[in-house]
Amino acid sequence: MRRSHHALESNTYIEDKDSGELRRPHHVDLKTGMYRGRQIFAVKED
Hints:
The protein is mostly beta strands.
């Protein structure tokens, strides 16, 4: 009862506007390198 407020919450995901894939809010999309409509880093080709 003492630590009942320490329960784990489920992760939040939002749908990306451009690709339609699920991603974490306020995180850089690692596949495209975009964050809030700006290109943050260049994506390496495999």
